[in-house]
Task: structure prediction
Amino acid sequence: TPQSLLYPYEVIEEIADFITKGSGMRPKIGIICGSGLGSLADIIQDPKIFEYEKIPNFPVSTVEGHAGRLVVGTLEGATVMAMQGRFHFYEGYPLAKCSMPVRVMKLCGVEYLFATNAAGGINPRFAVGDIMLMHDHVNMLGFAGNSPLQGPNDPRFGPRFPALVNSYNKDLINKAIEIGKAMGIESNIHVGVYSCLGGPNYETIAELKALRMMGVDAVGMSTVHEVITARHCDMKVFAFSLITNKCATEYSDKKDDEANHDEVMAVAKNRQKACCELVSRLIREIHMA
Ligand code: HPA
Result:
């Protein structure tokens, strides 16, 4: 089956109805919590919680550190829905399945996608714990001929050939930079290019070197296909990476160059307060505007 036919419009609509009726809300902002950043959903007020396995036709997430539930409620006065646990290509799901919740968000009424992830820092200026606001991406899975939009296009979602320049909303990036200054963490905030690889293995040094030469600042295993799906249906996108480890782009005898999931989770846990504050403040600004 072509990817785009896995979840027809009617199926997405049914899931969206289940969530809007079950919560009594039409959320305006959708949040995807990255590895170790599940607390972004824990700060939602008056939450209505939908376990993935109880949502009709919804996939279940299989990764440690990713709960599997949708949380609908309010944050800074704005109606939001957050995915605590996302779906990854390396779990064996086609990209259209990984990003299908973005279409559910769209039909629930969501206008803004906030996507977060844990990523390895390739840019040598990045330190562990820094936040990289995404202003562009390099879609490695796309280079390899894979896309969540592959297959017949349903124009109710968006156009056959969506443009992706200006995918990452500049106003939101600028607002986030200002918020970082107000929080006193401007030296820990960067703007850069993210790339998604298939995973689940971390990268080789030669691969990281190649990514660096391509202009990539941070690397992970998510987000890009979600952003493509969101832009296809004309959502405004804000995304950031929490840098959980530094990627070696040169060979060395030191052992500590290896990425590992426990380290990723520990750093994310340490930095979740700052990430929550950034997201809350940005949502407040959107809500007040
Ligand atoms: N590579 C890929 N994905 C990641 C990394 C990394 O170094 N760190 C966190 N997610």
